[in-house]
Amino acid sequence: MQISFAAPASTIEAGSWVVAASEGRALTPAAVKADKASGGALTRALKYSRFAGKSGEMLEVLAPERLGASRILLVGLGKPPALDLKSLEVIGAQILARLESAGEKSATLEIEVPKSAKLKPAEAAAHLAFGARLRGYSFEKYRTRNLDEYKRHLETLKLATADAAAARRAWQALDAVADGVLFARDLVNEPPNVLYPAEFARRAKTLAKLGLKIEVLGEAEMKKQGFGALLGVGQGSERESQLVVMQWNGARKKGDPVAFVGKGVCFDSGGLSLKPGSGMMGMKGDMGGAAAVTGAMMALAARKAKVNAVGVIGLVENMPDGGAIRPDDVLTSLSGQTIEVLNTDAEGRLVLADALTYTQRRFKPKFVIDLATLTGAIVQTLGFEHAGVFSNDDKLADRLAAAGRSSGERVWRLPMDAAYDKMIRSKIADVKNIGGANSGSITAAQFLKRFIEEDTVWAHLDIAGVAWQDGEQKPMIPSWGTGWGVKLLDRLVAENYEG
Ligand code: BES
Ligand code: MN
Ligand code: ZN
Q: What value does the mean pLDDT take over residues 448-458?
């Protein structure tokens, strides 16, 4: 889909003409213009319709012969004071969905946001396009039949807006973020026989074209350096474990980078503590944290963010075979701490432990944030609407919450405390990899904290409930893999670390 911005014209030549009304059927000037151009077709349709102008409501009129357009689509904006950039993204997504179900090939959006909404028209247009682009995604590469039913039909989307140059500037950054989100979704959607650790690493390497510096450590190198926890997880798999290090140096000055660390379990069978069949389905998505980190690094590079950032992802496959780690094994992590593995299905924290140690020691980051589909318990707690956040720093936690509100990828903080830490004391090693029957997300976070050095500012995002969607589809997410986290990390950087 080609997206472009142009000044409004008196009429449109072809495709759908999309105009707006706010609640109470208050037609915008462009809607009045389209109505006149069509000889009152909209007014007539309104007479026989319940359309009220609520946010996302639509009224479709096939355009009369004399118009070049195929149809006029009237879209509700709701009450102007309630309109913000996020709701415009949703409206953009809803418009795209409607155009797709109509089988439309081209469309011009002339959505004028009422003045009382207090939004810049150029930004409004860019965010409409952002929502449309996210909704326009699809993952159909493994279908060989009935492609017409699944593929996207819209080829060109034009946004008519008074200040097209300013809209184009705003779009540049949003387009880059969308690139990152879609890249992450592809990674999550890929089946695990295709996307195993080395293949993930290969795809990450392609991002070097954006100016990212990418390094890949294989098993021999990690063994030499002492990644005993990460390698322990991968040792039951035929596939080689990998660590990918991505660096973006966009700040004007040198300085400590911000750091993101991702759990990249390309498939989580549970290992010898094997998951039941029903719990194993979807575990190709257990690399959602690594996908988010990769997508975020891509977005930062593509929009040339003025920040120094590193992304580190631990890529493994958790499988049971004769060489696999056993429940009762003790592993020595990169930090030197020993870990008693009592359940091989609590593997994500083992991967993260070494990736976190590596990141802190090598980069001395301003802060480190890890993202991981870490526990089923977080899905029980927060469902699909928030990721869990755990942090040793109130300021970072607050900034994450704020970026969550502005990006729409919301997080909710949960507690950490010495009393929970007690639950992961091992009988024979420094720490064990499971807590008790309760508060599983918190004990997982306490485990990670054991690998956070004294002066490191840190936050952990448990994204098990948001990295993919099995139930109801969200307006801007038309696929199983959500790409969750790319928008959040991008916002966090944009709002706090580019000054
Ligand atoms: N990848 C899973 C967590 C998960 C579960 C993500 C369901 C998404 C949906 C993780 O590796 C895991 O298996 N965690 C265990 C930990 C337990 C053994 C302490 C869990 O949550 O059951
Ligand atoms: Mn597991
Ligand atoms: Zn896992």
A: 98
Return residue ranges of the chain for CATH 3.40.630.10. 177-496
Q: Which ligand is nearest to the CA of 341?
A: 1
The distance of Cα 336 from the centroid of its chain, to the nearest Å, equals 33
Among all chains, which residue has been given the structure tokens 């359309």? 51
> Can you give the pTM of this predicted structure?
0.98
Q: Is the pLDDT of residue 467 over 90?
A: yes
Tell which atom from ligand 1 comes closest to the C-alpha of 286.
1
Write the CATH number of the domain with boundaries 2-161.
3.40.220.10
Which residue type does 348 have? G
pLDDT of residue 221: 98
Q: What is the pLDDT of residues 47-83, one digit of tens each?
A: 999 999 999 999 999 999 889 999 999 999 999 999 9
Query: Tokens standing for 112?
Result: 């004028």
Q: Determine the atom of ligand 1 nearest the C-alpha atom of 434.
A: 19
Query: Which positions are annotated as active-site residues?
Result: 275, 349
How many angstroms does the Cα of residue 374 sit away from the middle of ligand 3?
Answer: 6
Q: In Å, how far from its chain's centre is CA 431?
A: 32
For residue 286 and ligand 1, the question of a CB distance below 6 A is answered with yes
Of 427, 356, 436, the closest CA to residue 392 belongs to 356
What CATH number should be reported for the domain whose range is 177-496?
3.40.630.10
If one counts every other C-beta atom within 10 angstroms of the C-beta of residue 252, the result is: 7
